[in-house]
């Protein structure tokens, strides 16, 4: 799952070498924290958050077999 978020994010940004994904897990959920170059934050979020919403939808769909809630957070 971490690789999925990384691949998608690297395709969206101008500085793919600065894409970082950290995984945080607790008993009920898994959170992927996506950090990118400050100039690329807008590209990952998109107009009115459409790209971020699509990224979250893809990750949620891919995580159906997980028994935990999966979310993606964009951090600067």
From TrEMBL:
Keywords: Cell shape, Cell wall biogenesis/degradation, Chaperone, Cytoplasm, RNA-binding
Gene3D superfamilies in alphabetical order: 3.30.300.20
Single biological process term from Gene Ontology: cell wall organization
A GO MF label: RNA binding
Localization (cell): Cytoplasm
GO CC terms: cytoplasm
Pfam family, one: KH_KhpA-B
PANTHER family: RNA-BINDING PROTEIN KHPA (PTHR34654:SF1), UPF0109 PROTEIN SCO5592 (PTHR34654)
Family the UniProt entry places it in: Belongs to the KhpA RNA-binding protein family.
Assembly and interaction partners: Forms a complex with KhpB.
Protein name: RNA-binding protein KhpA
Native source organism of the sequence: Paenibacillus mucilaginosus 3016
Gene name of the record: khpA
């Amino acid at each position: 799952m971490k690789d999925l978020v990384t691949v998608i994010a690297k395709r969206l940004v101008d500085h793919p070498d600065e894409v970082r994904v950290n995984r945080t897990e607790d008993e009920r959920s898994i959170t992927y924290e996506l950090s990118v170059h400050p100039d690329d934050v807008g590209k990952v979020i998109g107009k009115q958050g459409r790209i971020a919403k699509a990224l979250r939808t893809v990750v949620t769909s891919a995580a159906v077999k997980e028994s935990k809630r999966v979310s993606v957070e964009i951090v600067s």
